[in-house]
Design goal:
The complex is a heterodimer of chains A (140) and B (487).
Chain A (H helix, E strand, L loop, with lengths): L5 E5 L4 E7 L2 H16 L9 E8 L3 H19 L1 E12 L2 E10 L13 E2 L5 E5 L2 E9 L1
Antiparallel strand pairs in A: 1-2, 2-8, 3-5, 4-5, 6-8, 7-8
Helix pairs in contact in A: 1-2
Chain B lengths: L4 H4 L1 E4 L2 E4 L11 E4 L2 H7 L4 H8 L9 E8 L6 E8 L4 E2 L11 E10 H4 L3 H11 L14 H10 L1 H6 L27 H7 L12 E10 L2 H6 L7 E8 L2 H21 L12 E2 L3 H36 L11 E6 L1 E10 L2 E10 L2 E2 L18 E4 L7 E6 L1 H6 L3 E2 L9 H7 L5 H7 L3 E4 L16 H11 L2 E14 L1
Parallel strand pairs in B: 3-4, 18-19
Antiparallel strand pairs in B: 1-2, 2-3, 4-5, 5-13, 6-10, 7-9, 7-11, 8-9, 8-19, 12-13, 14-17, 15-16, 16-19
Helix pairs in contact in B: 5-11, 6-11, 8-10, 10-11
The chains are: A alpha+beta (140), B alpha+beta (487).
Chain lengths: 140, 487
């Protein structure tokens, strides 16, 4: 069954995503794509600059929160929007990944709302047919 | 498992509902919900009431796990939740404050009338939109280093005063004098400081805004006078924002710390997001001093935004913000915060940690923490509504002090998700609709406006009326927007 990379999840106060992927790595990459799709039209974000991400977490859920929070760090500190993600490795408590994007251009980018934080609310990662499903809600 | 939380509520009077301890084993105290029977229909639709029950599990909680009428489903704590824990054996929880530490509101008065502002409204809103970045991207007009951010975290609004972004009297009209004691920037991560540094003096997005409002109705003349509000037609500026990425990262960092601490101290939690530590523990104290540091950043942020709002008025109207326009601060108050406070419980003084998650402090007349000018009225409580209707200013009461730890509501509360609102308003040009109402709106993304439209929110008048009738806060004035800046 072909799953979309991610779907939007509704919540009264905020918004979230459900990401799918053939592997945990792919699912995490799609979760990042989903988070940035909430914030800006990804088609307009050119993959010009690369950031390498290396984070640790207690478990897969913790790693997902850390990974997405690290991307938010680049968004706030460096005004980076990302549109391409490769999670190279998730082993035990560690995740290594690369993300490509460019600095926000308020004239050119179609911006939506900002994500303040990655919450642990309804946070869930589980296997599904042919891969994994990750659900995550954001504080908007 | 109680599936219908609403049915478990016991009616006390028309505005108070008790959630008995027996509905969820592990509750240490009952829940208390302030709402009309009609509002419970909306409140009961999501898991907010279960979250009220979950908060009652936390060690050291006193009296009740409380919920204001604007309650909605949050992360761990409900938004609109108030809970106080004894300092001796209680806990402090980052979830009880939220990601946006010291998200809050500041109101500036002016001596202007609507007729005077109308001809310049567009220019004024455009000027504010240029000078005070809203939404994604766009740094503030002030450039600060990490070292300077550390000073901001200790000095709060006083940092702005020292750098020429405040009038001396401004800081007196800010909760805690604009700089809360006990802030320790060393307990805030470098990443949090890096996130916050470029964002000082910015509004952010989501439900944050800056509005130019007009007094619509005065309910309490004496309290309005103390605020410098003379009557209908007078123009105010209303600012709603918080501690930006600095606060968001600080909360995130300490959720991890607290998850481990909760295990270490063997705290039984019904929801991981209530992760907490004893107030007196190292983890608890570290969080308290980091959270306080982030709160001070937010006070400074709102001070800077107030400064550029004054400058915008001055530039557009060509009149002096102080001498001609009288743009004094009415008040600045937090609605996402935890504070160590003294309260009376059953006739005895007690020190507690009051968590206000989407709830505003509302101290009464005569309280030592209330500024001198509000000693006779209680300090102002700003209650923002939605951009198409109205907002309120209330004052705290003695009843709030004895019943809700001197706390009241913080806004309208959403009823529709962002996507549901967008679907419902598909094809409706909200900016145009607002323009027909005489409201000029500037937003970074016009499409986003439908997500913040009136239809997505409860009527704030209903929320305020519950607390007014229950004696928790007195209505002072109602304002309607004429100019709106959104992210």
């Amino acid at each position: 069954m072909a799953q979309p990379p991610f779907e939007i999840l509704e919540h009264t106060a905020d918004a979230g995503i459900v990401a799918h992927g053939g592997s945990l790595e792919e699912t995490f990459a799609n979760a990042a794509a989903g988070m940035f799709a909430l914030m800006a039209d990804p088609d307009g974000v050119r993959p010009l600059e690369e950031r390498r991400i290396d984070v640790e977490g207690r478990d897969h859920e913790g790693l997902l929160v850390r990974w997405l929070t690290e991307l938010l760090y680049y968004l706030d500190a460096e005004e980076m929007l990302f549109s391409r993600f490769v999670v190279e490795e998730i082993s035990g408590r560690r995740l290594r990944a690369r993300a490509w994007g460019e600095r926000i251009d308020r004239e050119r980018h179609r911006l939506h709302f900002g994500v303040k934080a990655v919450t642990r609310h309804m946070l869930e990662i589980r296997p599904e047919d042919g891969g994994y499903r990750a659900q995550v809600l954001f504080d908007i | 498992m109680v599936t219908r939380w609403k049915d478990a509520l016991e009616k006390i009077d028309d505005w108070r509902w008790r959630l008995p301890e027996k509905v969820k084993p592990g509750m240490r105290v009952p829940g208390m919900v302030f709402a009309t029977e009609e509002m419970l229909g909306v409140i009961g639709q999501d898991q907010a009431l279960e979250q009220v029950a979950n908060v009652a599990f936390l060690p050291g909680i006193v009296k009740y796990s409380m919920a204001m009428p604007d309650i909605h489903w949050g992360y761990g704590f409900p938004i609109g939740g108030v809970a106080a824990m004894r300092v001796e054996d209680g806990v402090i929880s980052p979830g009880g404050v939220g990601f946006d530490i010291n998200c809050g509101t500041r109101v500036l008065r002016t001596s202007l009338t609507e007729e005077e502002v109308r001809p310049h409204l567009k220019e004024l809103v455009n000027q504010i939109f240029r000078d005070i970045p809203a939404g994604l991207g766009g740094s503030g007009l002030v450039k600060v280093s990490i070292k300077e951010i550390e000073k901001v975290m200790v000095q709060g609004a006083h940092w702005a005063l020292e750098h020429g972004y405040a009038w001396p009297e401004d800081v007196e009209s800010v909760e805690g004098g604009g700089a809360l004691k006990g802030a320790n920037p060393d307990k805030v991560s470098h990443r949090a400081k890096q996130r916050g540094a470029p964002q000082l003096g910015t509004l952010g997005s989501g439900n944050h805004f800056l509005e130019i409002q007009v007094i619509d109705e005065v309910f309490h003349t004496e309290a309005a006078k103390a605020m410098g509000i003379d009557g209908p037609g007078q123009v105010l500026a209303f600012i709603h924002c918080g501690s930006r990425g600095l606060g968001h990262q600080t909360c995130q960092d300490y959720l991890d710390v607290m998850e481990e601490a909760a295990q270490k101290y063997r705290i039984n939690l019904p929801d991981k997001q209530l992760a907490c530590a004893p107030i007196g523990s190292r983890e608890g104290q570290d969080y308290l001093s980091a959270m306080t540091a982030a709160a001070n950043y937010a006070f400074c942020n709102r001070q800077l935004i107030a400064h550029w709002t004054r400058e915008a008025f001055q530039k557009v109207l060509g009149r002096d913000a102080r001498d001609d326009l009288g743009m004094e601060v009415v008040y600045d108050v937090a609605h996402n915060i935890a504070k160590i406070e003294r309260h009376r419980v059953d006739g005895r003084e007690m020190t507690v940690c009051v968590h206000r998650k989407g709830a505003t402090r509302a101290f009464p007349p005569g309280h030592p923490d209330v500024p001198r000018r509000y000693q006779k009225t209680g300090h102002p409580v700003h209650v923002p509504g939605d951009m198409g209707r109205y907002s309120y200013i209330c004052v705290g009461t003695e009843q709030a002090m004895s019943e809700t730890w001197g706390s009241t509501c913080h806004g309208a509360g959403r009823t529709q998700s962002r996507h549901a609102a967008k679907r419902m308003l598909k094809g409706v040009d909200i900016a145009q609709r607002l323009a027909r109402q005489g409201i000029y709106v500037r937003a970074q993304n016009r499409g986003l406006l439908s997500e913040e439209a009136s239809e997505a929110y409860k009527d704030v008048a209903d929320v305020v009326d519950v607390l007014h009738e229950a004696g928790i806060a007195h209505k002072v004035v109602r304002m309607r927007p004429i100019g709106v800046v959104k992210g």
